[in-house]
Amino acid sequence: MIPTVLSIAGSDPDGGAGIQVDLKTFSALGVYGMTVITSVTAQNTMELKGIHDVPADMIKAQIEVLVNDIKINAVKTGMLRTKEIIEVVAGEIEKQKFPLVVDPVMVTKSGAALIEEDAKNALIDNLFPLAKIVTPNSFEAETISGIRIKTIDDAKHAAKKIAEYGSKAVLIKGGHAFSEKEALDLLYLDDEFKFFKSERINTRTTHGVGCSFSSAIAAELAKGRSIENAVRNAKNFIKKAIRFGFNIGCGFGPVNPMAHLYNKAERYNVIKNLKKAVSMLEDHKEFSALIPETQTNIAMALPFADSIMDVAAIPGRIVRIGKSVKASSYPEFGASSHLAKTVLTANKYDSSIRAGLNIKYSEKILKACKKLGWVVSFYDRRKEPAKIKKTEGMSISWGTEQAIKKAGKVPDVIYHKGDWGKEPMITLLGENAIEVANMAIELTKIINIVP
Ligand SMILES: Nc1ncnc2c1ncn2[C@@H]1O[C@H](COP(=O)(O)OP(=O)(O)OP(=O)(O)O)[C@@H](O)[C@H]1O
Ligand SMILES: [Mg+2]
């Protein structure tokens, strides 16, 4: 049976937050989503223009029909604007035994109030005692606890204070606080503190982040995960949703909860594309002339890739044996580090570029690339700043970025002339593995006619 999750929250017509993003999150995480709408808002990515509360008896009726019919595995509450709404929702939830996530939503990203002043205490008194976990952001945590949060110690005090209102766990989210470099969340559970960290992404695509995050926690709880594991999985999930948010609207662009699912769906296609590309190269003996000393690899990324685990390549690379070409094994995700980083960096600048192939460096090959009309750019490894050289794994991303900036776009070809102990190299870039394999094959055809 598919786990079922209910979101009791407001409607956001731009689809980025509220029940709209909750449903996307539930689908992306493989649970069956349901909704009880508490308020209809008129908002976009910039501002909130109006709110129409659904009458409390209609909210009650929506919950009643669901619980009378469907077994619900977890519930999440979001926007509950008035005392009356909160009391009705708490009254219905009290009768049931499902794990409850309370997201104590108070203001929108654009700063508009989503709860009446006199309803805040009702939320704390009526719903917190029923909750498995409450998920305030740092501002909400300040309001609820009355403690000003500047440091992690302040957050710890606030979390303990909030826990006194009766929820099993408290998660204070650090999307707006604590650290410029990290997005750090603090979980208080069973008298212990746990931290969940991720790199802070510099972006404006954070509309709906809090809604999607609390829905992801509810979805994971519905699957039977522990509170700690549910938060960990939700944190991984939300990272991708933020990183690949939609640049639509003029304000804060919506997060993209589907990024996670689209990646899953594309894994087979990426492997299939790579297999075809590899067999094209193996069948084309002349390609052996383009294989460098350190052998070659071909890589292709998922559509929403942000780590080398999202990039597939050939473990053990593609090798030259005499005059023939042979892949050491079948493609796998996470099988390349250097080439994967080149592809990931290129993809950050141009999302259509998802594949790369390393070939031997020579003046002649470069001339052939130019003759084919390809955009060629380069970087100089000897100019790499010492700080970057020292940081493990940064060199390739730095170099690729240099080459992209020089060309003013992601070029078709990036080369470097090597450094002490580093073989010079050319990388062909394209939309998919078959495309870059074809580029290599085209090169072999004209290489001998270039002067
Ligand atoms: N720029 C960012 N980079 C990485 N993670 C982020 C970023 N902003 C928020 N997060 C993470 O997203 C989750 C939601 O946190 P946040 O504190 O932004 O919630 P919120 O303020 O309730 O959001 P909303 O305004 O949508 O209600 C947390 O796990 C937080 O650490
Ligand atoms: Mg929020």
Give a summary of the structure in a few sentences.
By secondary structure, the chain is of the alpha/beta class. The protein has 14 helices and 18 strands.
CATH overall fold name of the largest domain: UDP-N-acetylmuramoyl-L-alanine:D-glutamate ligase
- Rg over CA atoms, rounded to whole Å, is 26 Å
Overall 3D shape: elongated
Q: Based on the coordinates given, report the CATH architecture of the largest domain.
A: 3-Layer(aba) Sandwich
| Biggest beta-sheet profile | 9 strands, mixed
Tell me the domain tally.
2
What's the overall average pLDDT, rounded?
A: 95
Strand share of the residues?
A: 15-25%
Structure description:
With 451 residues, this protein is an alpha/beta fold. Helix content is 38%, strand content 20%. The protein is built from 14 helices and 18 strands. The strands form three sheets. Strands 3-2-1-4-5-6-7-8-9 form a nine-stranded mixed beta sheet, with helices on both faces. It has a seven-stranded mixed beta sheet with strand order 14-11-10-15-18-17-16, sandwiched between helices. It has a two-stranded antiparallel sheet with strand order 12-13. A hairpin with a 4-residue loop joins strand 2 (32-43) and strand 3 (48-53). Helix 2 (56-69) runs parallel beside helix 3 (83-94), helix 3 runs parallel beside helix 4 and helix 9 (259-282) packs parallel to helix 14 (433-446). The termini are far apart. The mean pLDDT is 95. Magnesium ion is lined by residues 103, 105, 137, 210.
Q: Which keywords apply here?
A:
L-fuculose-1-phosphate Aldolase; 451 residues; nine-stranded mixed beta sheet; binds magnesium ion; alpha/beta; seven-stranded mixed beta sheet; 2 domains; binds adenosine-5'-triphosphate
